[in-house]
UniProtKB/TrEMBL annotation:
Native organism taxonomy: Eukaryota, Metazoa, Ecdysozoa, Arthropoda, Crustacea
GO molecular function (one): zinc ion binding
GO biological process, one term: tetrahydrobiopterin biosynthetic process
Annotated catalysed reactions: GTP + H2O = 7,8-dihydroneopterin 3'-triphosphate + formate + H(+)
Name this protein carries in UniProt: GTP cyclohydrolase 1
GO annotations of cellular component type: cytoplasm
Swiss-Prot/TrEMBL keywords: Hydrolase, Tetrahydrobiopterin biosynthesis
Major enzyme class: hydrolase
Domain of life the protein comes from: Eukaryota
Organism in which the protein naturally occurs: Cyprideis torosa
Pfam families given in the database record: GTP_cyclohydroI
EC number: 3.5.4.16
Family: Belongs to the GTP cyclohydrolase I family.
Cited NCBIfam families: folE (TIGR00063), PRK09347.1-2 (NF006825), PRK09347.1-3 (NF006826)
Amino acid sequence: MLFLTQGYKQDAVEILKGAMFKESYDDMVIIKNIELYSLCEHHMLPFFGKAHIAYIPNGHIVGLSKIPRVVDVFARRLQVQERLTHDILECINTTLKPQGVAVVIEAAHMCMMMRGVQKQNSVTTTSGFR
């Protein structure tokens, strides 16, 4: 359980700030298929999937590995997918101050697969844009 909740002890903003570089590149940067594993705060069951994150730099870029690290910080907390999407989006938006940022998460929820409606093939997609 400590591993699955270690995100409470990590600072996603500091992770990004530690790897920001001045750069004039102003086209979209996209990191796709970032694996994520989290725990549903309602049922204490896992949900897992992939995050796709894009941002348009505004004078700064960030080390590419830092985006997946931010995903892990917020995923390794008791979560709901909607808030996870929002947390990642707001962290990137407020720290990098990009021209634009998008976060899309596709995840399967064990609480839907093994209890309740028992739909093993359902996937939930959430998105946020700024």
